[in-house]
Design brief:
Blueprint lengths: L1 E3 L2 E5 L8 H9 L4 E6 L3 H18 L2 E6 L3 E5 L5 E6 L20 H5 L2 H34 L1
Parallel strand pairs: 2-3, 3-4
Antiparallel strand pairs: 1-2, 4-5, 5-6
Helix pairs in contact: 1-2
């Protein structure tokens, strides 16, 4: 975590943008701007860009992905791509834009993945209940057929 005149800056590296935890951890620590240095190629970049947008929205922080070979993207805390630049050849590049820094503290960044886990456990519980209910129905049908 780095305190700068622009706000609190935190780096996460390359593929970490695909996972919720690294961005959430730095947001909980007070990051307002998350830098993501990468070295990607064209086929993967769009997915990484979408993940950067997700991390910005989930944690209400600005996200800047800087790729040494292909593309640079700046995302504001609300998921809007403020600036995007494709570099035709590897080398030095510069992209300048006004990106508002975020104020971390969304419900998701405070509570984490509990909603997803709750939904998964609820689904498993409903499947178990349904299987038990079908089993009881079949036993009741057999009992009725045997008594008739």
């Amino acid at each position: 975590m780095y305190d700068t005149p622009l706000g609190r800056l935190a780096p996460i590296i390359c593929n970490d943008v695909n996972y919720t935890a690294p961005a959430r951890i730095v947001a909980r620590m007070g990051a307002q701007l998350v830098m993501v240095p990468t070295r990607m190629f064209a086929g993967v970049w769009r997915e990484m860009q979408v993940m950067a947008v997700f991390r910005a929205v989930e944690n209400r922080v600005a996200t800047v992905m800087v790729d040494g070979a292909f593309r640079t993207t700046m995302v504001d805390p609300y998921g809007r791509i403020v600036a995007d630049q494709v570099t035709p050849a590897p080398g030095a590049q510069m992209l300048v834009a006004d990106v508002p820094v975020g104020s971390p503290g969304t419900l998701y960044s405070r509570l984490g993945d509990w909603v997803g886990w709750f939904c998964l456990l609820s689904w498993i519980g409903s499947m178990v209940y349904q299987a038990a209910d079908e089993r009881r129905s079949k036993q009741a049908e057999r009992a009725t057929a045997a008594s008739a």
